[in-house]
Amino acid sequence: KGESDNRNQQKMEMKVWDPDNPLTDRQIDQFLVVARAVGTFARALDCSSSIRQPSLHMSAAAASRDITLFHAMDTLQRNGYDLAKAMATLVPQGGPVLCRDEMEEWSASEAMLFEEALEKYGKDFNDIRQDFLPWKSLASIVQFYYMWKTTDRYIQQVM
């Protein structure tokens, strides 16, 4: 305290949310509902998503995950908390923006391979990648693991 900070703040960090924005909590919540609805609609239009997410409730569940909410909050911030501009960004000229996370990037057979590998190797992600999923990056496997831990399949295996 009291010392000058000569570091270039622009290079150190990037502001991703302003808690002193002009929107009310209700307006933000309403925008998040719209963002989830747009995410569900984007999945309905996307061929690869409909193959992986064959039902509407599964698409809606996927659209409710963190990746969609992070995108929505980022969209609000990048548009200066202007709801109309943010909405237009969610649904640009070419159609709705689709944000996917690792859970959606993996097929059912890849998820089953992962579970089999996890049973065999535990959390040795290098061995899992080497012997079961060599086409996946190590980062992808680790990210999938932490998302998979939040699913019903993980809970069933633990019990």
From TrEMBL:
This is MTA2 protein. One of its GO terms (molecular function) is zinc ion binding. Keywords: DNA-binding, Metal-binding, Nucleus, Phosphoprotein, Zinc, Zinc-finger. PANTHER family: METASTASIS-ASSOCIATED PROTEIN AND MESODERM INDUCTION EARLY RESPONSE PROTEIN, METASTASIS-ASSOCIATED PROTEIN MTA2. Residues 1-20 are annotated as: Disordered. Belongs to the metastasis-associated protein family. GO terms for biological process: negative regulation of transcription by RNA polymerase II. Pfam families: ELM2, Myb_DNA-binding. GO terms for cellular component: NuRD complex. Residues 1-94 form the ELM2 domain. SMART domains: SANT. The gene is Mta2_0. SUPFAM superfamilies: Homeodomain-like. Residues 1-18 have a biased composition (Basic and acidic residues). It comes from Pampusana beccarii. Residues 101-153 form the SANT domain.
